[in-house]
Amino acid sequence: MAEDTTVLLEEKRVFKPNYKIVEEAHIKNWEAELEKGKNIEKYWAEKAKELEWFQKWDKVLDDSNKPFYKWFTNGKINMTYNAVDRWIHTSKRNQVAILYVNERGDEEKLTYYELYRQVNKMANALKSLGIKKGDVVALYMPMCPEAIITMLACAKIGAPHTVIYSGLSVGALVERVNDAKAKIIVTADGTYRRGKIIELKKIVDEAILRCPTVQTTVILEHTGIPIELSDISGKEVLFDSIIEGEDDKCEPEIMDSEDPLFILYTSGTTGKPKGVVHTTGGYMVGVSTTTKLVFDIHDDDIFWCTADIGWITGHSYIVYGPLLVGTTTVVYEGAPDYPDPGVWWKIIEEHGITKFYTAPTAIRHLMRFGDKYPRLYDLSTLKILGSVGEPINPEAWIWYYKNIGREKCPIMDTWWQTETGMHLISPLPVTPLKPGSVTKPLPGIEAEIVDKNGKPVPPGKGGHLVIKTPWPAMLRTLYKDEKRYIETYWENIPGGVYTTGDMARMDEDGYIWIQGRSDDVLNIAGHRIGTAEVESAFVSHPAVAEAAVIGKSDPVKGEVIKAFLILKKGYSLNTALIGDLKKHVRHELGPVAVIGEMVQVDKLPKTRSGKIMRRILRAKEEGLELGDTSTLEE
Ligand code: WTA
């Protein structure tokens, strides 16, 4: 077998942090912090002390019943008390907690004190509707302050929430609400998206007929479109009317560290979504620490994560992480390119955003419009950029670095999952960066790249990314499905390690390069090659805007590459370009990247969070059933 092809892809440039960032950073010495993190229990206990506990824990980590790990056992704490209440007795009382902006240009600011009062009213309203500790509340809401108020109100009274992304539709909503046995759905009349209003209540009206556990639907009048309240299926009440008259004080529920905080559904390899369960104490320690250290949060920061609260990134880095560290979190409702592709850069200028966190798919999309739009705005307040969700190809990284960060902001390429709750592999602002690498596991985290028998693979070789030791914000189980929890995460690879389902490789410096999901890895004539790497090679060609790659069976090589390409304006996939692209990819990846077929397309099937659904392309290719398409964009 020839040399592993992945080595050929390695991006050689190293970007050193600028001195100002180092001067300011909480962690100035990366290596020393990594060293400290080796004593896992001591490290996380230290971090846990930054939160206010009603009662201190007995044990940092209880591993007596693997893989059902417990963190900070017997500790008593409340999320909302820490994220909101404790700030109102400090100078943060009148600081903006939530800065809401939408694509129409509307704005709303809530200080920590205002947020505190609103959350208390909603918490009391939920109690009045009969919600008790342990009852599940479903949210199907726009990106707006009331959504966050509802999440925090649930956490205050100990009612786990399950947030369902507002882009999912009836089927997905019914399945999740029923699996969680939610008693209440909180929704809105609609949400703004690309100049239109998506009518959420209509979707709930249809779903609710198949959701027998739901007793009450709460509707927020958000866009002002006319809605009809009905009594056909359970009680319908307006958000404003239930909080009106409620007391603006509410005692926090004393939660055990291991009491559930939320359930969040995510897709697995089978059709049925997995209900990932996160608990209270460990999750709080994990997300507050990573928010503070990865984005180096200080008092004057304005933090903007462009995700949606319907995903884990929204839970951990729009809502809980930023509020736990007492910063200002930006909540944006709308599309990244409406009314024009400069809308995000305009918001950065207008509000003086200092830390900006988005996804490679958004970068690649906005890159297509060139540097015209970012050049129109003053982005000089930015200090740190972030990336999450998929491997960022070096071209997108460099574009982001140059045009948005103006070559002075380090990019935190954060690797993590719904299941991990918090960043696990990511640089810190002082880390020397290589475009496309997520660098090393964070302090307190141990990861390794192994073969399917759990044996570490040498540097340069691709393998399975596993996490070797538990971490505070880890999922505790899959809701009502312990068997699937054990099988999916703990039995795939021997050695008692957590299987991430991702493939990765490590370079000579110990830097990790994520290759993509294990089911998205191609095998061409016995050579392992990540679809993400092939796609990265394609998009580094000037004619290609976006690419999705799947394996196509080949009688001789097992698999060859089939590429679906969105070309930039003015290009078409003629013989000359086909020849040129083949040469280019071969040049980037080596001769093993055998291209069987290329097709030009206008669109790629994506999840609503922007991940390419190669499974759909494969199924179509092989004439198979499409399987679960509930998360497909359209
Ligand atoms: C992928 C999102 C490369 C990975 C937080 C993981 C990434 C899956 C990165 C989890 C990254 C996430 N580089 N790949 N920085 N971050 N991924 O559950 O395949 O929506 O397993 O959580 O996204 O997706 P999820």
From TrEMBL:
Cross-referenced Pfam families: ACAS_N (PF16177), AMP-binding (PF00501), AMP-binding_C (PF13193)
The keyword Nucleotide-binding is assigned to this record: yes
SUPFAM superfamilies, sorted: Acetyl-CoA synthetase-like
Enzyme class at the top of the EC tree: ligase
Annotated Acetyl-coenzyme A synthetase N-terminal domain residues: 38-83
Record-stated family: Belongs to the ATP-dependent AMP-binding enzyme family.
The protein's name in its UniProt record: Acetate--CoA ligase
Species: Methanothermobacter tenebrarum
